[in-house]
Design goal:
The complex is a heterodimer of chains A (about 120) and B (about 500). With about 120 residues, chain A is of the alpha+beta class. Chain A has a single domain, classed as Ribulose bisphosphate carboxylase, small subunit (Ribulose 1,5 Bisphosphate Carboxylase/Oxygenase, 2-Layer Sandwich), CATH 3.30.190.10. Chain A has two helices and four strands. Chain A has a four-stranded antiparallel sheet with strand order 2-1-3-4. Chain A is globular and about 55 Å long. Chain A starts with 15 loop residues before the first helix and ends in an 18-residue tail after the last strand. Chain B is of the alpha/beta class and about 500 residues long. Chain B has an eight-stranded parallel β-barrel, surrounded by six helices. In chain B, helix 8 packs parallel to helix 9 and helix 17 packs across helix 18. Chain B is globular. Chains A and B meet through helix 1 and strand 4 of A and helix 7, helix 9 and helix 17 of B.
Amino acid sequence: MRLTQGAFSFLPDLTDVQITAQMLYCIDHGWPISIEYTDDPHPRNTYWEMWGQPMFDLVSPAPVMDELTRCREARVGSYIRLVAFESTRGWESVRLSFIVGRPDVEPGFQVVRASGPVR
Amino acid sequence: MHENEQEIFVNDNTAKDRYRAGVMPYAEMGYWQPDYEPTDTDVLAVFRITPQAGVDPIEAAAAVAGESSTATWTVVWTDRLTACENYRAKAYRLEPVPHRDDQWFAWVAYDLDLFEPGSISNLTASIIGNVFGFKPLKALRLEDMRIPVAYLKTFPGPPTGIVVERERLDKFGRPLLGATVKPKLGLSARNYGRVVYEALRGGLDFTKDDENIGSQPFMHWRDRFLYCMEAVNRAEAATGEIKGTYLNVTAATMEQMYERADFAKKLGSVVVMIDLVIGYTAIQSMSAWARANDMILHLHRAGHSTYTRQRDHGVSFRVIAKWMRMAGVDHLHAGTVVGKLEGDPATVAGIYDTLRDEHTHRRLDRGLFFDQPWASLNKVMPVASGGIHAGQMHQLLHHLGEDVVLQFGGGTIGHPDGIAAGATANRVALETMVMARNEGRDFYHDGPDILRRAARQCAPLARALETWGDVTFDYTPTDSPDYVPTATSS
């Protein structure tokens, strides 16, 4: 299966050039960017592990790209996503989130079935 | 009207004369006060007034203020037992409608104490109560309202709101996608669930019951809920994403609606749906239920066009949108601009502003007559539904922005290669367009090209563009703003 969380999972995996362009979009909006990874991509697993702190006050994508490269080397086979936060009053949450790394083989999920009163 | 009485009372408005038994013009009774300065806590309204031939527009405006607040057709001495000057609504401004010689906009101010805290029913019973049938008016339309912060704060508002909905669904940075199951009537529950499963696994975030799905002989509600949730759970496992289906809990009584909503919750649904026709009180009750049960509340605006569409008479949908944000719904159908249903681009933009802004600014070119601070009331996710397809994705993103649910019913289910392919086409078109926008491309103008390029790697999108690429619904809107922006010399 292909995990389709994040904003761009239905497109071919993003190239580094494409990832950089999205980072620029976030930086232009003043959003800090965080790198997160996990081996448990269940949709209810909200808290993926943080690869360091979110990076604030960015003026260029280069530092994020450097960290992403390190994360990819250290976490081969994990899911990795970029998360951008908006601090504007009334939002104060994630503004953009997309997957930038995934295992070669994705295990996927199965529905665990249990017969109960309604089925 | 009342020319005779007018003479008697002119310039002699002492209390004794004012309350002499008989009929007098509303304007003379204190409902027309052109020098009145509205206060920050007043509820304000703008009405479009079409007086009957021969009726003075000032008197008509005063009558609207009177009939929507304290007045009756004749003088009553019991007014004098009250602080009636406070309770009288005051028409305080009158302007001719641009390009019309028979219509006026009248601004009316209402004291805060005229309304019960937290009750849309009570508010609307005054503002759109008897007054709309008043004989001296040929037609009347409520164009816009300014709800004071003091009154807004008595409403809990949307139970979830755009931000928490996105957090709960783990979906950020792109519009959400949905589809209404079609045919809207007649499918058995088992077949209905098939459509849900195919659409969700193919890439949609939501599917939706239509407004008139209740518990009919061909599909009882419990069967529908069971098969739909089987489909949702399977699709979640297949994609690793949170999925939802708007289970319509609209029913004959509140007791039945609560029973259906409780069952939806028990089965793990993230969202339930109601129709506007259940009424304001029922909507507020379901909002309280949704808040207590961590549920997204989807409102389908069934019935609204009977009173929102024509510009001369009724209630503007931007007012309904305002009331629904106060009443507390999370989703509201608010127009597509490019689809099959009524939707002037500027009018729709004004409605979207009303649902999503922290502070909606007065913009006459969008039909917004007032600044409306929202006092941190949650935002409502607008839903664009009706005759839209993947080939319009650049237009949809341009007109409607990012915080919106785009609902492709026919545009998903009618795909020649099947429902899942239709869903995939929509999702790929959407993600492609968002990516292009973020990359700084002129996606509105380059849209068709961007879609064609994406279609080279996505057969379902190529088929969708082939099938619907040229379909448009280009008709003159009936509800467009009266004011247009004019170029200034500066």
